[in-house]
Amino acid sequence: MSHDLSAVVLAGVHDWGACLLNQATLRPLVPIANRPVIEHVLSALTGVGVTRAIICTNGEGGRMREVLGDFFVGGLPLSYRDDPMPRGPAGCIKDAAATLDDFDVIAIEGSMLPFFDLEALVDHHRSADAALTIAAARRPSSALDTFTPVGAYVVSSTALAHVPDRGFCDIKEGLLPKLHQAGHQVDVHTIDGIAPNLQGMSSYFALNDWAIRLADNGGWNLDGYAREGDAITHIDARIDDSVRLLGPVIIGPGVRLGRGAIVVGPTAIGRDSDIGAYTVVSRSAVWDRARVDDHAQIDRCVVATGGRVAEHAELFHTVCLTGGRVLREPGGSLASDDTNGDLRVPSAAPTCMCPMPPAVS
Known about the structure:
The protein is about 20% helix and about 30% strand. It is of the alpha/beta class. Strand 5 (about 70) and strand 6 (about 75-80) form a beta hairpin.
């Protein structure tokens, strides 16, 4: 496959209604196993030789740039495009691609974990000489196989010529009928892997737990980390000898775990977070620069970036934000113990060719 390939990452922010993650961060920046979900996307793109990525947002480009910068791991150049008016996926791809010289562009959603062979998608598109190729997952049913788009496409300039220069245009209802009417080839590529999408709080813990277990099973090469019993810990973490880590657990760089603390997996603790003495952190996600004060106990909680759990607090199914704000969905609906058939942890490293770069944190 040629490596002069560009990508458009669809990272527009859409309201999740009453979902508490709305108040914690933007959807593409939600950490999955200590890493913003959009970084998992960029890692997969880097792994197939993409040389430039344009991140399309609808007003949050500045905030994205603050987190991601102008270059990704390995030197992948990043640029940002805010659409002042809703353009829809096809419209955003066309606007972004106007600055590119490539005939074919990978377009991919920024809140999806692409654990499938992106290179095979591009090769399929080019061998079929298609105007548009849609990545889809096979969903077996009792009567026949059905296919569900996963949020990744290869789009040619031929297809984008049918997208209007103004107004909203999606792919399914807007672009596809025009391509069929014009007689252009539209193909479907069945992925060999999975592509779970972050849909809100109901799916967050399922995705985070799955990614933590994948790392624990050796699915990623984590540079700067070492296995400590049941945990994967960064060499810069400071862990008291009395701490108990009951995995799978990922402990990020700069984390401090105080005397007598207990961490029960699946749990990920992000960069520069401070876990106090005699705390219990169970089945939770502690994001970057967060604090859990002495003697606190949390289970199935999100402690957002910069968030804090007060001393002696006991929290269950709760989101803790900056300034000490604590939010809980009515009826304890943050529970996410349901299993998802698409999120089973493989017994060995995945065979898909979407490698993560060494610096997973």
